[in-house]
């Protein structure tokens, strides 16, 4: 599948600046864009599930009867560690809790 997104001149420049700041050199542009898209879809899915849960709670609906979880808490999808370069330093973004405090 190929996606094409039309951006205004300002949006295109902002996206180029963003990419130059956060894309690690060892990750090609295609994989970086796939990662951004995947994170966006997962985030939207979580928000939609939260909205469905709120609606169910407000209307006293049982979500289990339609195959949906009673709660979206702890329902976040498995995420991969993504290496991200910030100001010339390499760090790993992870959804796993860190033992170190900064």
Please, could you describe this protein's structure?
This protein is mainly alpha-helical and 102 residues long. It has a domain at 28-93. It contains two helices and two strands. The protein has a two-stranded antiparallel ribbon with strand order 1-2. A hairpin with a 2-residue loop joins strand 1 (82-86) and strand 2 (89-93). It is elongated and about 50 Å long. The termini are far apart.
Short description:
The protein has about 100 residues and is mostly helical. It has helices at about 10-20, 30-60; strands spanning about 80-85, 90-95.
Features:
102 residues, mainly alpha, two-stranded antiparallel sheet, 2 helices, 2 strands, disordered C terminus
Topology:
Layout (H helix, E strand, L loop, with lengths): L8 H14 L6 H30 L23 E5 L2 E5 L9
Antiparallel strand pairs: 1-2
Helix fraction, binned, reads 40-55%
Please, how many helices?
2
Q: How much of the polypeptide forms β-strand, as a percent range?
A: 5-15%
Shape: elongated
Distance between the termini: 41 Å
| Largest β sheet strand count, sense and barrel closure | 2 strands, antiparallel
- Give the low-pLDDT segments: 84-102
Question: What is the number of beta strands?
Answer: 2
Give the strand line-up of the largest sheet: 1-2
Determine the mean pLDDT: 76
Structural class: mainly alpha
Evaluate the radius of gyration.
Answer: 18 Å
Listing every helix as H and every strand as E from the N terminus to the C terminus, the arrangement reads HHEE
């Amino acid at each position: 599948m190929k996606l094409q997104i039309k951006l205004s001149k300002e949006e295109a420049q902002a996206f180029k600046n963003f990419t130059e700041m956060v894309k690690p050199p060892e990750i090609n542009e295609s994989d970086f864009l796939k990662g951004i898209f995947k994170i966006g879809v997962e985030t939207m899915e979580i928000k939609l599930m939260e909205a469905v849960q709120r609606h169910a709670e407000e209307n006293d609906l049982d979500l289990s009867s339609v195959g949906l979880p009673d709660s979206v808490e702890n329902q976040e999808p498995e995420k991969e560690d993504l290496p991200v370069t910030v100001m010339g330093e390499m760090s790993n973004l992870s959804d796993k809790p860190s033992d170190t405090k900064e």
